[in-house]
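Field: COMPLEX_INPUT
Field: COMPONENT_COUNT = two
Field: RESIDUE_TOTAL = 729
Field: MODE = joint
Values follow.
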Amino acid sequence: MSSVATTPPTRPARRGSTAAGRQLTWWQQLVFQALCLFVAATVLFPILWIVSMSLDPRNISRPTELRLIPPGASLDAYRAVLDRPTANPVTFIELARNSFLLAAGVSAFALLIGVSAAYAFSRFKFPGRQFMMISVLAITVLPAVATIAPLFALLNSVRLSGTLLAITLLIAGVLVIALVTMAVLPAIRFGTATVGTYALGAVGVIIGALVLLSGLNAFGGEIFILRNSLLGVGVAMISGALPFAIWNLKGYLDTIPKELEEAAIIDGATANQIFFQIVLPLAVPALAVTGFLGFIGGWTEFFLSWQFLTDPADFTLAMALWNMTGQYASSVPWSRFAAMSVMVSLPVAIVYLALQRYIVGGLTLGGVKG
Amino acid sequence: MAATNPGVATVETKAARSPTSDAWRQLRTPLVYLIPAILVMGFLTFYPLVYQVYMSFTDYGVIKAEGKQTLNRFGPNGQPPPNYRPAQFVGLKNYTDILTGNPQFIAQLAAVSGGQFNFWRMLAFNLWWTFSNVGFHVALGILIAVLLNVEGLWGRRIYRAIFILPMVVPNLVIATVWKNMFDDQYGAINQLIGLFVGGPVNIRWFNQIEPPIPGIPLPLSYYAMLIANIWLGWPFMTIVATGALQSIPKDMYEAASIDGATGTQQFWNITLPLLRPAMVPAAMVGFVMTFNLFHVIYFMSGGGPLGQTEILVTQAFKLLNVYQLYGVAAAFSVLIAAVLIPIFLITNRISRATESYDV
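Field: COMPLEX_OUTPUT
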């Protein structure tokens, strides 16, 4: 969008009547209002339809009429969905936990590795840079569905016995906690820690603890097939999420003015100091937005989990929602489907609205660097 | 010197620089930042892509007719299962099957699902689907942005807040909700039409095979999905267009109206040309996104009726999920890449996205 600022200078504008906007006549206002209201009605129609159906107390299996506010609205459908959304023996909370772990894990990992690569692309000139950037961008163009066959085959051949899995997980958990401590501790000791530092530390320690815990649980378990696990789905998702994160973050970093860094270079700062103490703090909104976009991708990921997972305990929200739609759902009342839709969308919708301004800027930056 | 000991980054040698050591010096610092990404992408992105090309030349997958499978090299005890047979090299067979529509291959697919398979028809439909959607998105996006930009319009803030809602809901949910809305018996669309017509309406949106407009070979489900996807896509274009509109200096419109230009003339001669630099790259982003839009097609029509609205990504998924033909799916994905890479190169050329950012 920045390109718009470089519009060719036209003939000098004739100043004079810089009136504060023209006034609309009443019939113009009427026509424009009618158009706006029509568009608003089309936008709101599906949303109101689904919300009103989810509130219907009659627990309708199939709606037979259009009603904005169903008589005597209640939250019964929500209660039913929380308890057991599909025929599979999983609760909504378990589904949401799986989706959350998948989404948060993938986006955090992609962010961590993506931001350093994005910094290299944005701030250094080196041989092979152009080629690397084009190959990263080209990957983001390929659909994620198109690599599912090799990922399935490769991840399917990664198998560990229960003991080996437990040991692997324990080592991984310790490594995660150690790395996070190493990254966060210096900042805390020197008093340069910000809220972000503490948040990073907390998230890292929690993830590490979860990995450790699952490692302890895995002792003596069955043979672990990476493909048939949430971890495997996450690994497969990173295949596409990382290039996207790199590209999106590079777009943001390009817009951060370099004056600060130039001043720091004059003061003798090294590249590492610049990255950790100048660029990273300035990039926090970009990290939040890119992380959130990655999170949405994971939260509603469908085809990988549908293809990979067989154990209902691993199922995700998207899979459950699809189980409640269309051909699979002849026995699911539509009011429950509606409640499920609302509950899947609401968390991301709220965050989206809160971050709206940054997200919109970022979406346009990523591809629209003219 | 530095090349032999990259860890000592601060020790600069003032020895004579050969071109290679010069390149190395330039590469050294960025490489530290790139190494994690190179490793991860190497293992998880590029290696699978190479493996995919290998798979596309084999009969990898579950072979139902013989009761054998080649997928699992590891059985329950780490031993190969009794029906294991290694994948065999079949040359270009997968590609020729897909591209020429080998009758034996088509029959194999039809035995499972009864659907139809024609790569060229699918590609043509996919391109048309993309063009028609992006066309509507851009046109509506610009018109609504201009409408919202009218000075003195009441309730602009409220409209802006409402109009962003389609972007906020995950498109997986949007697709499933629209699928139910277009249900032929209980769907809200048929009920809404019924309100205007004054009687029950039973349009079979996803099952009617005959095209609704004679002469145009597009089934009714295409129009249903077009409506859903237009609903989904225009707000993004409106936001891009609004940003661009607000940076057009007002002086230009004043000058034009003093010169006697009408509103329509101003729209065509000022607004549109100045929106172009922002809209063209956004349209290209939309083009690639719509081309690969799995959710709407898979969740709404499922490619039906009779595979008439199948696009490349949904077919690739079905080759795996329904037919379990991993080798064919790999070949199909290579063909998708072969379609997309030229499109990518063209769009990249136009938007100059990877052009170097002067350091």
